[in-house]
From TrEMBL:
This is BTB domain-containing protein. GO terms for biological process: B cell receptor signaling pathway. InterPro entries: BACK, BTB/POZ_dom, BTB_POZ_KLHL6, SKP1/BTB/POZ_sf. Residues 61-128 form the BTB domain. It comes from Pelusios castaneus (West African mud turtle). SUPFAM superfamilies: POZ domain. It holds the Pfam family BTB. Keywords: Kelch repeat, Repeat.
Amino acid sequence: MGDKVEKSSEEPLVSLNNECSRKMGDLVEVSTGDKVKFDDTGLSIVLQNGLENLRLENSLTDVILCVDSMEFSCHRVVLAAASNYFRAMFCNDLKEKYEEKIIIQGVDAETMQMLLDYTYTSQVLITKQNVQKVLEAASLFQFLRMVEACTSFLTEALHPENCVGVLRLADTHSLETLKQQVQSYIIQNFAQVLNYEEFLEIPADILYNTLKSDDLYVTEEAQVFETVMNWVRYKESERFPLLPYVLEHVRLPLLDPWYFVETVEADQLIRQCPDVFPLLQEARMYHLSGNEDHLSITSNTAKDSNGSFRASSS
């Protein structure tokens, strides 16, 4: 995203008089014979700074937003222009359209201050400490460009330790682009992500999509099986019914035959789940027929520079 995310509180306000003294060379001139049209591309900056000055002077404000114990004087027209949420509130026949003070829920005062500073200055400071609150508030009040900025920030800050939390945040706020980016990150960094307990909180549908990928970064399929069983046992009463569906994406024929017999078939949860027996039988057939060698040669294989792979069992 090309827009700059900067701290606004330390930036000096540009006076209206200074802006008005811009040189004519800063304007776009379009001449058509006996007519000359000047397109003042800097006028939007003049207007924005003028509105910010009016807010700071508490001039011409016509609504007060009450958040926690704080009150913020604003202009309805500015809020409605910047946010679809406030546009719906002030432009439709709702009671808030006529109220002088409006109680705002779902956001704390500090975050609301950031939203309003952004609205009037187009600048905001996003940090690791505040990005989640800012994203949630921007999503709630439909500041779509701020949502974009937070999404970009989170994508750049992905790490094996935080990626599942970011994924759940994206899922909660229906941020599909961010969700897909995080899922790709987890697939490519699967072995590292598993080292953090947060992985056990991953939603079932994301786990399905992750495990079925040919690009899943693992050194052996046993790692995938153990991941599934740890995930199920983490919330066993809730997830045990999901075991057949998750295990379907573990490529059991790729497991070492001895590991399959001594670890997979001997697992108590596996033995208690009749619905997984067809999957076990399919793997047995591969192992008994010696097809595992054929499988590793003919199936689709994803390999990286370190030689780690995930072969397809189909």
